[in-house]
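Hi again,

Forgot to attach this to my earlier email, sorry! This is the prediction with nicotinamide-adenine-dinucleotide bound. I've pasted everything inline since the attachment limit keeps bouncing my files.
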Amino acid sequence: MIVDYAMHPELPARLFGRAEAPLTEFTSQASRRRLKTTEILITGWGCPVLDAEALDAAPLLKAVVHAAGSVKGHVTPEVFARGIVVSSAADANAIPVAEFTLAMILLANKAVPRLVREYHAAREDLGLLTQHNDLGNYRKVVGIVGASRIGRRVIELLRPFDLQVLVADPYATDLVTHDLDEVVGRSDVVSIHAPATRETYRMMGAERLRALKDGATLINTARGSLVDEAALIAELQKRRIFAILDVTDPEPPAADSPLWTLPNVVLTPHVAGALGSEVARLGAAALDEVVRLTRGAPLKYEVDPRVLSYQA
Ligand SMILES: NC(=O)c1ccc[n+]([C@@H]2O[C@H](COP(=O)([O-])OP(=O)(O)OC[C@H]3O[C@@H](n4cnc5c(N)ncnc54)[C@H](O)[C@@H]3O)[C@@H](O)[C@H]2O)c1
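Structure tokens for the complex follow:
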């Protein structure tokens, strides 16, 4: 049974040899008829909530395979309480976010967003070659906030470069970590990769934003709620720091938000995760999980409800 396989056109054909229309709700009689015989539910972005009522309609359900990242939007504690296993494609979705972040870190250290602007304005040689300046990716410090799936991938991708990486994460016991304040104060680029939880709400508050080094860049591909946006705008208005924001709070920013016009901000429309060609990777990951289930093999990306409180 497929809820939303549009993200991977091969999926229904490979599973059933024919396409079935995805369910977009769990309440109509037609949906209920299909749920009644459903054993594996493949879910996608925007899936309706799997509450007790929906689950009552699916008495044979044994697995929910999410062909996207976080399952928090639709998988309720009731799902786990009924012994239904849950899998997510968050690992596959981490790949493009980490790639995006790597690119942005390298461009930020090289001051590319600023230089593009200055070159366009000046329309003449900026004289950079003869300047002693701090541009570039040699011996810079990159702070990674959150050794999450994405954070860990970014750390791996940064290995070949002449960059020092500092990690802040109270849960990562297997890595050398530093206190968040130390990471913020020492880094040339701070990249946020922690999940949105009660604990991380506005973790980048006014004081920490003020503690960023002059010329530092804050990259946020995680969630807007992790940053105190008013405080960030205040800091950016001093033209002291830079920001690359793929996520904001609210999203998109209000029409009159200074984030649209501040020259030291690069604003992207929540595109770091799987997009375009990358979406098929999510479907492929889900399909692999379904194949494992049908063979009786363990899931590779099973969601552990015990750690969901500090995961995305
Ligand atoms: N921009 C996009 O398109 C996009 C796409 C995918 C994910 N995301 C976001 O990226 C972030 C990371 O996603 P993920 O799947 O890698 O997360 P994840 O679920 O793997 O992260 C969980 C880990 O984060 C760390 N963590 C938890 N609380 C922390 C804290 N207070 N301080 C530091 N570290 C903490 C812990 O190591 C924990 O194990 C999330 O906010 C997610 O919503 C954005």
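Residues 69, 90, 93-94, 97, 145-150, 168-172, 193-197, 199-200, 221-223, 246-247, 270, 272-273, 310-312 surround nicotinamide-adenine-dinucleotide (CB under 6 Å). The longest strand covers residues 140-145.

That should be everything now.

G.
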